[in-house]
């Protein structure tokens, strides 16, 4: 089975219902979502199943949801069949609240890093923020796509922050605070709003 088609050799790729330049905002957005998914896969290889069964279950579900997000962004038919709903956003919010109760109280900004899994989750978090920014750019062009994708990415970056902190806490690796940070988190970082 050949995986190459040569149809993209001139700088275009297929959407569901059209073709587009490979550097179009829509392609950039779902390509970045694919990048997030790959780093989540890497993080999963760094999490010990006995210590992180809940995170591994979360991340597997998230990988499937990211495929749904990418598929929804790629569907430009007149009558698209979108897969994403509000339910995964609500699940992420619940999990964020649960996870943020586990690690030590947070008062200041922390530096990305710690255990290998936490470092990878932080990478996935920052790439998720880029994907979110790209959906904002896509929206400004007037392109249509389900807005739940943007909300999901916003919440996912918060989840990945919480998961990275839990990965460090369970591994016995402390988070390192940004040394010039003031006290920026209310309630020790326990509030539902962990990001913007």
UniProtKB/TrEMBL annotation:
Does Nucleotide-binding count among this protein's keywords? yes
Which enzyme type, at the first EC level?
transferase
Q: Does the keyword Transferase apply?
A: yes
Q: Which parts form a coiled-coil structure per UniProt?
A: none
Q: Which InterPro entries match?
A: CblAdoTrfase-like, CblAdoTrfase-like_sf, PduO-typ
One biological-process term from Gene Ontology? cobalamin biosynthetic process
Q: In which pathway does it act?
A: Cofactor biosynthesis; adenosylcobalamin biosynthesis; adenosylcobalamin from cob(II)yrinate a,c-diamide: step 2/7
According to the UniProt entry, what is the EC number of this protein?
2.5.1.17
Cobalamin adenosyltransferase-like domain location: 3-167
Q: Which Pfam families match?
A: Cob_adeno_trans
Q: Which UniProt keywords apply?
A: ATP-binding, Cobalamin biosynthesis, Nucleotide-binding, Transferase
Q: Which GO terms describe its molecular function?
A: ATP binding; corrinoid adenosyltransferase activity
Residue stretches spanning the membrane: none
**Catalysed reaction per UniProt?**
2 cob(II)yrinate a,c diamide + reduced [electron-transfer flavoprotein] + 2 ATP = 2 adenosylcob(III)yrinate a,c-diamide + 2 triphosphate + oxidized [electron-transfer flavoprotein] + 3 H(+); 2 cob(II)alamin + reduced [electron-transfer flavoprotein] + 2 ATP = 2 adenosylcob(III)alamin + 2 triphosphate + oxidized [electron-transfer flavoprotein] + 3 H(+)
Subunit structure as annotated in this protein's UniProt entry: Homotrimer.
* Family from the record: Belongs to the Cob(I)alamin adenosyltransferase family.
Protein name, UniProt field: Corrinoid adenosyltransferase
Q: Which organism is it from?
A: Planococcus salinus
Q: What is the lineage of its organism?
A: Bacteria, Bacillati, Bacillota, Bacilli, Bacillales
């Amino acid at each position: 089975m050949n995986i190459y088609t040569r149809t993209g050799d001139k700088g275009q790729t297929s959407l569901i219902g059209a073709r587009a330049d490979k550097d179009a905002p829509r392609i950039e957005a779902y390509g970045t979502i694919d990048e997030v998914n790959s780093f989540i896969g890497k993080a999963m290889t760094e999490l010990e199943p006995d210590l992180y069964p809940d995170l591994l279950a979360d991340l597997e579900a998230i990988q499937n949801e990211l495929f749904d997000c990418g598929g929804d962004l790629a569907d430009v038919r007149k009558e698209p069949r979108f897969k994403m709903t509000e339910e995964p956003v609500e699940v992420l919010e619940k999990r964020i609240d649960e996870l943020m109760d586990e690690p030590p109280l947070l008062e200041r900004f922390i530096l990305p890093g710690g255990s290998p899994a936490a470092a990878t989750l932080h990478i996935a978090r920052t790439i998720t923020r880029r994907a979110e920014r790209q959906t904002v750019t896509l929206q400004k062009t007037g392109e249509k796509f389900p807005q739940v994708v943007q909300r999901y990415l916003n919440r996912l970056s918060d989840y990945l922050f919480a998961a990275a902190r839990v990965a460090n806490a369970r591994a016995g690796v402390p988070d390192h605070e940004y040394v010039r940070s003031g006290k920026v988190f209310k309630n020790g970082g326990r509030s539902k709003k962990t990001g913007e």
